[in-house]
Amino acid sequence: MNDHPDGRSRFRGMLAEAAGAVILLVVVLAFMWALEVFDYLLPLHLDQYGIRGLDPSGLAGILFAPFLHMGFGHLMANSLPLLILGFLAAVRGLGKFLAATLMIILVGGLGTWLTSPNVIAVGASGVIFGYFGYVVARGIFDRNILDIVIAAGVAIAYYSMLLGVLPNQPGISWQGHLFGLIAGVVAAWVLRRRTAKPITAF
């Protein structure tokens, strides 16, 4: 029998899952924008519900912080990278994408909480750095041609992001960036293929 139809079927399945992830990301982004509009019109100061470093009452902010932003400029800067890197993170399956996202939010958020005393951190940039780390590390751990190509493209296109993990920008949570990146690498390791395989095509 000819294997090409199966290969095309797998490829279509991957694209369908990635498209599902994009729809999910668009919905999440719409929710973020709605929150920002709501906060602007009524001002409720929702940013106070972000990650409060070393404050036990601020631990809940680990779950809320990725959806909150310090104004429309902050949210606009995060929107496109979240969509692009989120889509690339989802290429290998929606289930792994959701698991990776949860690990990035929890591990990255906890690291930020532990290292950011007297600071409230908000924004999706920790998740964005997490997707960057996840996509690049997945190419290293899984040794799949598609993952390697995506990892190389992301590393070339977004390498300048790595400057964001350095404490050289006042008002920017470099801790959130750094621990988001680390969480992405951890997620790629946890979700890697469990059997050693040679480099293969998708």
UniProtKB/TrEMBL annotation:
It comes from the Bacteria. Keywords: Hydrolase, Membrane, Protease, Transmembrane, Transmembrane helix. InterPro entries: Peptidase_S54_rhomboid_dom, Rhomboid-like_sf. The chain crosses the membrane at residues 21-42, 62-90, 97-114, 120-141, 148-166, 172-191. GO terms for molecular function: peptidase activity. It is an enzyme of class 3 (hydrolase). Gene3D superfamilies: Rhomboid-like (1.20.1540.10). GO terms for biological process: proteolysis. It is found in: Membrane. Residues 61-193 form the Peptidase S54 rhomboid domain. It is a multi-pass membrane protein. Its EC number is 3.4.21.-. Its main location: membrane. Belongs to the peptidase S54 family. This is Rhomboid family intramembrane serine protease.
